[in-house]
């Protein structure tokens, strides 16, 4: 294979194009810079990315640095100080970089592109992630139970719709107990919680949770007192008798609300990223506590999570100077979340199962009145967030490899 051509070029790093164009490694240009402390590679889409010698050495994919299970054998803190690159060349679809500690670092070109950390690559990933989500969700995508059960394509369709819209309803679900767990298990075994593997949402005497009464429920996420709160919630409607007045469900996209708050009132947004709220479940049988901010941003200030569950919040434990600002910001965020113009409302019907991302789509229901034998019965369960994302990435690499890099 001919070596990559070396280029004395400056790179324009401001472009934010999708990074899906692949090219043979030997068609690409490399340029050693900073006295060998880094190399620039110009990809086929013209994006120019810097890779540091220390990064290339620490993440080397050769057989002595990584074993067959992809576990690291050579560790980042073993890299010598001031390591320099001596050469950059191409062998087939791999880049090879020799370093002055006598090693040859091997990197598949596709992997280098996937994990590039140039400004334009990162902006492109963020842009892609935001565009992929339909916000706020204004309709519920519907799928048939049979399509889900048919094969892997059905599972991928469900997960893709969930990741995009945050909510999916299945029709034609058999009226049998534990069907909800059967649906969940297409992705992963259910996440057991203090409520068991599956649970019935039905009005009963002395309820341990307002959900088990006919009272209304405000918009919330479930189980934020867990370190790993459920990623997906499933509600199979077993019964919802016609005569029942009220009991309609409504949903709000917390990510869309957070983006609106960030735009309208960045000072409130900032307070909610910084001050930790207390989420708890404290009663006769349970005492769970987890402190986390309502809005989580990453090291670039990009929104990565929302935590919102007013009925399950314990007393605020914040710095004195933050308390008043926190409650003002809280009110502003609640206003965005509860804005009627952005809510999704519908009445669940028997033989359907509504599934939604518990960490993005807030759920609620209106109070209802049932007389005599009338009943509203839902059976629910959860899928662990980690299980959902693990499966989503595996499916993405199979069915949509060009978008996988957006989910790190
Ligand atoms: Fe809930
Ligand atoms: Zn190596």
Automatic annotation (TrEMBL):
Residues 1-26 are annotated as: Disordered. Residues 155-382 form the TauD/TfdA-like domain. Residues 32-104 form the Gamma-butyrobetaine hydroxylase-like N-terminal domain. Its cofactor is Fe(2+). Residues 7-18 have a biased composition (Polar residues). One of its GO terms (biological process) is carnitine biosynthetic process. One of its GO terms (molecular function) is metal ion binding. Keywords: Dioxygenase, Iron, Metal-binding, Oxidoreductase. GO terms for cellular component: mitochondrion. InterPro entries: AlphaKG_dependent_hydroxylases (IPR050411), GBBH-like_N (IPR010376), GBBH-like_N_sf (IPR038492), TauD-like_sf (IPR042098), TauD/TfdA-like (IPR003819). Belongs to the gamma-BBH/TMLD family. This is Gamma-butyrobetaine dioxygenase.
């Amino acid at each position: 294979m001919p070596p990559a051509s070396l280029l004395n070029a400056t790179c324009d790093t401001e472009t934010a194009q999708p990074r899906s164009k692949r090219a043979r490694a030997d068609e690409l240009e490399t340029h050693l810079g900073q006295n060998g402390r880094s190399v620039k590679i110009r990809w086929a889409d013209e994006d120019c990315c810097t890779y540091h010698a220390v990064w290339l050495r620490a993440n080397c994919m050769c057989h002595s640095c990584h074993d067959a299970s992809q576990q690291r054998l050579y560790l980042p803190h073993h890299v010598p100080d001031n390591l320099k690159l001596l050469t950059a060349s191409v062998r087939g679809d791999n880049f090879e970089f020799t370093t002055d500690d006598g090693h040859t670092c091997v990197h598949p070109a596709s992997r280098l592109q996937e994990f590039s950390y140039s400004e334009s690559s990162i902006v492109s990933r963020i842009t892609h992630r935001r565009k992929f989500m339909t916000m706020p969700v204004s309709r519920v995508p519907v799928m048939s139970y049979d399509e889900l059960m048919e094969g892997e394509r059905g599972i991928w369709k469900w997960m893709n719709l969930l990741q995009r819209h945050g909510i999916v309803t299945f029709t034609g679900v058999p009226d049998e107990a534990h069907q909800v767990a059967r649906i969940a298990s297409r992705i992963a075994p259910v996440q057991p919680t203090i409520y068991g593997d599956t649970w019935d949402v039905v009005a009963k005497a002395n309820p341990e949770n307002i959900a088990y009464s006919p009272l209304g429920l405000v918009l919330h996420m479930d189980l934020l007192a867990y370190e790993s709160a459920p990623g997906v919630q499933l509600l199979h409607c077993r019964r919802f008798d016609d005569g029942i007045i009220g009991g309609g469900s409504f949903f709000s996209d917390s990510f869309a609300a957070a983006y609106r708050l960030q735009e309208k009132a960045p000072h409130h947004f900032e307070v909610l990223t910084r001050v930790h709220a207390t989420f708890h479940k404290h009663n006769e049988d349970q005492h769970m506590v987890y402190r986390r901010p309502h809005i989580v941003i990453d090291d670039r200030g990009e929104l990565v999570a929302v935590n919102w569950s007013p009925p399950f919040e314990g007393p605020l434990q914040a710095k004195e100077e933050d308390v008043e600002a926190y409650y003002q910001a809280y009110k502003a965020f609640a206003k965005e979340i509860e804005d009627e113009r952005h809510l999704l409302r519908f009445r669940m019907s028997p033989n359907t199962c509504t599934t939604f991302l518990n960490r993005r789509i807030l759920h609620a229901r209106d109070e209802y009145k049932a007389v005599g034998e009338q009943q509203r019965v839902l059976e629910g369960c959860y899928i662990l967030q980690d299980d959902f994302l693990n499966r989503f990435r595996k499916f993405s690499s199979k069915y949509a490899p060009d978008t996988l890099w957006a989910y790190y």
